[in-house]
Amino acid sequence: MTRVVVVDPRTAQGEAKPLLDAVQSQLGMVPNFLRVLANSPAALRAFLGLHGIAGEGALDPKTRERIALAVAEQNACQYCVSAHTAIGRKVGLDAAEMLANRAGRSADVRAEAALAFARALVEHSGQVSKAEFEAVRAAGHSDAEIVEIITHVAMNVFTNLLGKATEVEIDFPKVELRQAA
Known about the structure:
By secondary structure, the chain is mainly alpha-helical. About 65% of the residues lie in helices and about 0% in strands. Helix 3 packs antiparallel against helix 9, helix 4 (about 60-75) packs parallel to helix 7 (about 110-125) and helix 4 (about 60-75) packs across helix 9. The mean pLDDT is about 95.
């Protein structure tokens, strides 16, 4: 059971209402994670703003979802693994690729370098080595893409923390974690 109120978009009040309505209009649903976040309209607005900006960057949607899957698995957030598995399918990732992504691997060499860098960021709280930084650059990632990888890692760590701390109910097809936290 979720530890905080899951805001019902139909009865939301104040600033939360138009924000949730916009999500409903865009996605056709309002995920429980965003309903929990709506307890603080300021936090919801900040997340939606960062998410929107991050989605406009140089990284392609598949790479963004690969990063989300790798970070969610690394942080043992079942809600986020489940959500990003569903989203990953929508952007064209297959089951085998997503399973590999969750372990920090990919059939795409360039994507795998991004995942290795993302996992290093999480593992070392941002204190990546010179070799880790040079590896992502050697795989062909530009400075803009490297900054976006860092942004996506930070955004996904936030969602993992929120999902785990609040024990938000999974409202996507449930995917089991590969390993216990």
